Structures are given as structure tokens and as C-alpha cells.
From TrEMBL, chain A:
Transmembrane segments: none annotated. It holds the Pfam family RFC_C. It comes from Phaseolus coccineus (Scarlet runner bean). This is AAA+ ATPase domain-containing protein. GO terms for cellular component: DNA replication factor C complex; nucleus. Heterotetramer of subunits RFC2, RFC3, RFC4 and RFC5 that can form a complex with RFC1.
From TrEMBL, chain B:
Keywords: ATP-binding, DNA replication, Nucleotide-binding, Nucleus. GO terms for cellular component: DNA replication factor C complex; nucleus. One of its GO terms (biological process) is DNA-templated DNA replication. This is AAA+ ATPase domain-containing protein. It comes from Phaseolus coccineus. Belongs to the activator 1 small subunits family. Its main location: nucleus. Pfam families: AAA (PF00004), RCF1-5-like_lid (PF21960), Rep_fac_C (PF08542). Residues 41-190 form the AAA+ ATPase domain. It is found in: Nucleus. May be involved in DNA replication and thus regulate cell proliferation.
């Protein structure tokens, strides 16, 4: 079992990072009936952990017995009927799905599938807790239409079913949905908090931590707790006992991108562009999301550039990322950014050194 | 199950005024509608104004007061944006409903029951132009037996022929006093304790939108219990705290790109919504005294572009970084065109 899962807090009382939020959530769930919830925050900040803990608080340990199922729904869409395949994670009292997996058909998922799930009300012998919980992941990736359909569903079935929505950026969730939920912002844990968690894991695993070692992992993690714990475990596997100078292995895709960055800093020519294309494809076929590639590339370039070029380069990064979102094939836009960067950098070099 | 229904009832619904005369701050429309209640005659209406000012409330209240609970179902048709309202619906559902004749004028227990039906089209500005066009003739043909109430935020999105057939009423944003008195009333009913500072915060973050204010109040009450401070309200509303906005502006002033980059990174890690940040940056920039109008214009232009990009789904970090870098350039009066652009 990975440490990330092993040391995931199971109940709201054991949460280490967002203690105040956990405390409030506990009050909310135990004292009164809970409203729809919307969790938002950067990845690796503990949204999912909190959601699972809330479910456990509601339904007891039964909420952890989940089964994974691949179901197909038949949906009537006007004249034709569609088959939608979705993976669901469900327990007796809750169902978890990522409606955005259905791509452009997400509207039907929201309109039909959720409605169907919401309609079937669980029957409890004690006549208590007669509602179920639907956890929807990545609501920010839902299309506009799907979000509009969702708001009606939320109102209509609010007696039978509570929704817990989870997303990275709440800007992309429409106001109508946000105003129907209790918004819970989960911030990324601070480096001190990450340090605390790492030290606790170290203690539980009975590891010897040289001073400053955990701090270095925390610093490298970019305030992403999941990443910090994974890096910690990787280090453990690579070399134990830890030494003071032991390198924290970076993710290999990050190394790859940093290579690309130094490549294009060294030479700006069509030939180099062609070489870079191969490397970009390598990343894309390994399922690294294109916007992450672009962001990381910008990060690497900004580290190496002169101050006067930074504004310009970051402008173009934003420009091409936006275009990428509107377009279809990511490689065009990443490559366009690389080409643009080359041309800017070359003219800068000519202007400075002649 | 009753208990769940009661406890989860939205306060927005619970405290919705039931009578036209209870609608706050909109004297004009209240006067006209009170007149309607007495005489039983009514033109087509078009209500427009910012959200949370009582448009839907007024329309529903007048319909209820005119017909009473018994006739309401048969005389009033409510359609809002979440219902399908394409041209087909206009041609069939609305037309069918509008065409049905109504019985004669029988007064029932204090309800005037005038001899017409009402169709309430909520959020009418999201109807397509085709659908609106299809309504024109319907409105005239059945004007004897049907009145239309259009409700929208932007009157400019209602096509001219429809607007000219209606009596238009603008709903003003609620003033601070009226908002406070309503909020305090709800607090008293719900047994909440709200200090003066929290009250003024609530009015400022809700921008004259009473519905939003009540929603925030309810969320805060659910999460933090009966005594609510202004920080609690800010945390449930998703508004970025003043301090954070100030810090980002400060980073722009510093002229140091790496410093600004770090502050943007921090901002994203804290999980605040970037679109909210743009709004608040805009407010802060406009109020700023020591920068020229030209600089303000330049920054605002970029803010607009970034907002559009965010709506398209662009990455929050990159857009915000672009805005911050642009603001920094504007502050230090760097030329607008990049030096090495070709």
C-alpha cells in the first residue's frame, strides 16, 4: 500500500492539515442536515480526503466499502439513442462519478444518469438518513449546458439526494451552481504543514530523518501534499538510511521538459524545432496534460531568462494556452509557443550581441 | 422526511415577500401593481435590473395575489432558463397555454381573479432571438386572455418589438439601509448574532444583491453557528480578502518579475478563484489615485481580455500571471509593444 493511501486520514477527527475546516464540517454533518457542498482548491490539497471523511461521518464505516463498476446507460437524445459508459464508485449510500469523462455527451450524463440515480431513494428500516450522496468529480470540466442542466437537478431532487461537487478552479463553475452550494475552499497546505505530516510518517515508519531532509522534500513539492509523500516514499525506496545530501528525484517528465527548455535556449532553428517536436510528442503520448507541459516549460524558461524578456514570454504562454483550449490539437499550440519563443529570443540575442 | 425538508429550506425562499407591497425599494412598480390589484387590469410587463433586486419575487407575488392558491395552477405558466425554451416550446407550449380562454370574472375570497392568464418568462434574456420573434404575434393575438411578464437582467437582449409591447420597469439595486434592515430581520427570526462590522461587510460583498446576501448569511450560519463574524462571511462568499489583493498589487508595484511570479503562485495555491481576483483587482485599480488614466485604461483592457480567456477555460495561473506582468509594465510605463515582437 502506498503511503499516500496508508496515511490518509479516515475520519474528520484525524485530519491534520485543515483542522478548522474539518471541525466545521463535522459540526455541519452531525448537528443538522447538510446542504450541497462544493469543494474547490488546487490538486494535492486534500479535497478528496475531506470528502471521504465527511461521507464516513455521515454513514459510518460502511462508506469505505466501495465497489468499482463499469456501467452503460442508454439515453434518449432526441431522435437517436446513445450509449454512455461511465465508471462509478459506489457504496450503499453514495455514488461517485466523473461526469466529464463522457466528453461532449456530458449533458446527457447530468440530465439522465444523475436524475436516475437521484430518483432511487435508499430505504432504511429505521426511516432515517433517507438520502444518498452523489460525489461529482471535476465539475469545472463540465460544459456550460451540462452545468445549466445540473442546477435544475440540484433543486428538484434535493430531498432525496445531496451532491458533493469537487473541482480545481471555481471560476469555471457557473455562479448559479456556486450559489446553490456551500462553498468550501481548500487551500494547499503550507510547507510547515507538509513538514509536519512528513515527520509524522517518518516516525510511524520508524525512519531516521537527517535534519533538513524533510524540509527539502516539502520545498520541492510545490505545496502539493500528495506529491511530497510520494517523493518521500521514492526516496525511501532508492536509498535508506537517508543521507544529508541525497537528491530528491524530480519527476521524469519534469526533467524531460527542462531538457526541452535548455535545448531551445541553446539553438533557435527549424531543425531544433523539429527535434523538440519529437520530445513534445513523447510527453503527450505519456498522457501529460498539455497545459501542464506549457506551464512547466514557461517555469523552466523563466528561470533562465533575462528580466526584460520575461513579460513578453509569459504573455505568449498565456496567449497560446488560451488558443490551445479553444482548439483541438494541443501539439500545434505548444509548438507555436516554442517557435514564438525562439524567434523572440533570437531577435533579443541579435539586438544585444549583434 | 419533513424535518429534512424544513431544515434544508433555503432562506431565500423562506423570506421571499409574499405580497407586492412588501417588495422593498421599488416604489414605481409597486404603485402600478397595487393599482392592478384594485382594478384588475394589467399591461404586458417587462422587469429588468440586476440580480437579487426582487424581479421574480414581484412577478410571483402579483400572480399569487391576483388568482389565489386555487386558480394559480390553471392561470399561471412559469418558465425559466432551466426549462427548454427553444422555438418549438414557444410554438407549442406557450401558444397552447395562451390560446385557452378563461372563465368569467368571479371574485374569490379577496382575490380579484381578472379574466386573463399570466405567462411568466424568467431569465428572458437567455431566450434565443428566434424564440423571441416567434412570441411577437402570439402576444398580440391572445392579448385579450393572456398577459406576459418578461424578467431579465439585460434589457438590451430583449428584441425591440417585444420590449415595445410591454410596460418597462427598472429594478434598482437595493440601498444599504434597506438591505441591512432585511438582513437584521432575518437574523432576528433565525436567532443569529451579527455585529455591525459583519453587517457592513455583508452589504459590501453582495453589491446590492439581496439574494446573494441571504445565501451567504445562510451558508455562514450553517458552517459557523449562530454568531457570525465578517471573516466567516468572507470565507463562505469566496471573496478574496482585501489583504491578498493588496499583496498582489504591491508585487506589481515592486517591478520585480520573480517576486510577482511568486505571489501569483501563492495566490493559486491558496485556492482563490482567479475570476474573482480579476473583479477585485479591477475595483482596486480604478480607485487607485496615483496612477494616470492611461495606465488604468491599459490595465483594464488586459483585465477584460483575461476574463474572456478564463471563461473560455484557459489556465488560471497563466492568465493571472499575464495580467500581473501587464500591470507591472503599465505601472513602470514600459512601452505597450514588446521589444522583440516580430
Amino acid at each position: 500500500m502506498l503511503w499516500v493511501d496508508k496515511y490518509r486520514p479516515k475520519t474528520l477527527d484525524h485530519v491534520m492539515v485543515h483542522t478548522d475546516i474539518a471541525h466545521n464540517l463535522k459540526k455541519l454533518v452531525t448537528e443538522q442536515d447538510c446542504p450541497h457542498l462544493l469543494f474547490y482548491g488546487p490538486s494535492g490539497s486534500g479535497k478528496k480526503t475531506l470528502i471521504m471523511a465527511v461521507l464516513r461521518q455521515m454513514f459510518g464505516p460502511g462508506a469505505e466499502k466501495v465497489k468499482v463498476e463499469n456501467r452503460t446507460w442508454k439515453v434518449d437524445a432526441g431522435s437517436r439513442s446513445l450509449d454512455i459508459e461511465l465508471t462509478t464508485l459506489s457504496s450503499a449510500n453514495h455514488i461517485e462519478i466523473s461526469p466529464s469523462d463522457a466528453g461532449f455527451q456530458d449533458r446527457y450524463v447530468v440530465q439522465e444518469v444523475i436524475k436516475e440515480m437521484a430518483k432511487n431513494r435508499p430505504i432504511d428500516t429505521k426511516g432515517k438518513k433517507g438520502f444518498k450522496v452523489l460525489v461529482l468529480n471535476d465539475v469545472d470540466k463540465l460544459s456550460r449546458e451540462a452545468q445549466h442542466s445540473l442546477r435544475r437537478t440540484m433543486e428538484k431532487y434535493s430531498v432525496y439526494c445531496r451532491l458533493i461537487l469537487c473541482c480545481n478552479s471555481s471560476s469555471r463553475v457557473t455562479e448559479a451552481i456556486r450559489s446553490r452550494c456551500l462553498n468550501v475552499r481548500i487551500n494547499a497546505p503550507s510547507e510547515e504543514k507538509i513538514l509536519e505530516v512528513l515527520e509524522l510518517i517518518g516516525k510511524k515508519e520508524e525512519l531516521q530523518l537527517p535534519p533538513g531532509f524533510a524540509a527539502r522534500i516539502a520545498e520541492k513539492s510545490n505545496r502539493n501534499l500528495r506529491r511530497a509523500i510520494l517523493a518521500f516514499e521514492t526516496c525511501r525506496v532508492q536509498q535508506y538510511p537517508f543521507t544529508n545530501k541525497q537528491a530528491i528525484p524530480p519527476m521524469d517528465w519534469e526533467e524531460h521538459i527542462s531538457e526541452i527548455a535548455s535545448d531551445i535556449m541553446k539553438e533557435q532553428s527549424p531543425k531544433r524545432l523539429f527535434q523538440v517536436r519529437g520530445k513534445l510528442y513523447d510527453l503527450l503520448i505519456n498522457c501529460i496534460p498539455p497545459e501542464i507541459i506549457l506551464k512547466r516549460l514557461l517555469h523552466e524558461l523563466l528561470r533562465k531568462l533575462d528580466a526584460e524578456l520575461k513579460h513578453e514570454v509569459c504573455h505568449w504562454a498565456a496567449y497560446y494556452e488560451h488558443r490551445m483550449r479553444l482548439g483541438q490539437k494541443a501539439i500545434f499550440h505548444i509548438e507555436a509557443f516554442v517557435a514564438k519563443f525562439m524567434s523572440i529570443y533570437k531577435s533579443f540575442l541579435i539586438a544585444t550581441f549583434g | 422526511m419533513v424535518s429534512i425538508m424544513q431544515s434544508s429550506q433555503q432562506w431565500v425562499e423562506k423570506y421571499r415577500p409574499r405580497k407586492v407591497k412588501d417588495v422593498a425599494h421599488q416604489e414605481e412598480v409597486v404603485r402600478v401593481l397595487t393599482n392592478t390589484l384594485e382594478t384588475g387590469s394589467c399591461p404586458h410587463m417587462l422587469f429588468y435590473g440586476p440580480p437579487g433586486t426582487g424581479k421574480t419575487t414581484t412577478a410571483l407575488a402579483i400572480a399569487h395575489q391576483l388568482f389565489g392558491p386555487e386558480l394559480y395552477k390553471s392561470r399561471v405558466l412559469e418558465l425559466n432558463a432551466s426549462d427548454d425554451r427553444g422555438i418549438n416550446v414557444v410554438r407549442t407550449k406557450i401558444k397552447d397555454f395562451a390560446a385557452v380562454a378563461v372563465g368569467t370574472n368571479k371574485r374569490k375570497k379577496g382575490h380579484p381573479c381578472p379574466p386573463f392568464k399570466i405567462i411568466v418568462l424568467d431569465e428572458a434574456d437567455s431566450m434565443t432571438e428566434d424564440a423571441q420573434n416567434a412570441l411577437r404575434r402570439t402576444m398580440e393575438t391572445y392579448s385579450k386572455v393572456t398577459r406576459f411578464f418578461f424578467i431579465c437582467n439585460y434589457v438590451s437582449r430583449i428584441i425591440e418589438p417585444l420590449a415595445s409591447r410591454c410596460a418597462k420597469f427598472r429594478f434598482k439595486p437595493l440601498s444599504e439601509e434597506i438591505m441591512s434592515s432585511r438582513i437584521l430581520y432575518i437574523c432576528k427570526e433565525e436567532g443569529l448574532c451579527l455585529d455591525a462590522e459583519a453587517l457592513s461587510t455583508l452589504s459590501s460583498i453582495s453589491h446590492g444583491d439581496l439574494r446573494r446576501a441571504i445565501t451567504y448569511l445562510q451558508s455562514a450560519a450553517r458552517l459557523f453557528g449562530s454568531s457570525i463574524s465578517s471573516e466567516n462571511l468572507i470565507s463562505v462568499s469566496g471573496v478574496v480578502p482585501e489583504k491578498v489583493v493588496e499583496a498582489v498589487l504591491q508585487a506589481c508595484r515592486s517591478g520585480n518579475f520573480d517576486f510577482a511570479n511568486k505571489s501569483v503562485n501563492n495566490f493559486i495555491a491558496e485556492g482563490y478563484p482567479a475570476s474573482q481576483m480579476l473583479t477585485q483587482l479591477f475595483e482596486a485599480i480604478v480607485e487607485e489615485n496615483d496612477i494616470s488614466d492611461e495606465q488604468k485604461a491599459r490595465i483594464s483592457k488586459k483585465l477584460g481580455e483575461a476574463d474572456k480567456c478564463l471563461i473560455d477555460g484557459a489556465d488560471e495561473y497563466l492568465q493571472l500571471l499575464d495580467v500581473v506582468s501587464n500591470t507591472m509594465q503599465a505601472f513602470s510605463n514600459m512601452p505597450e509593444r514588446f521589444a522583440y515582437e516580430c
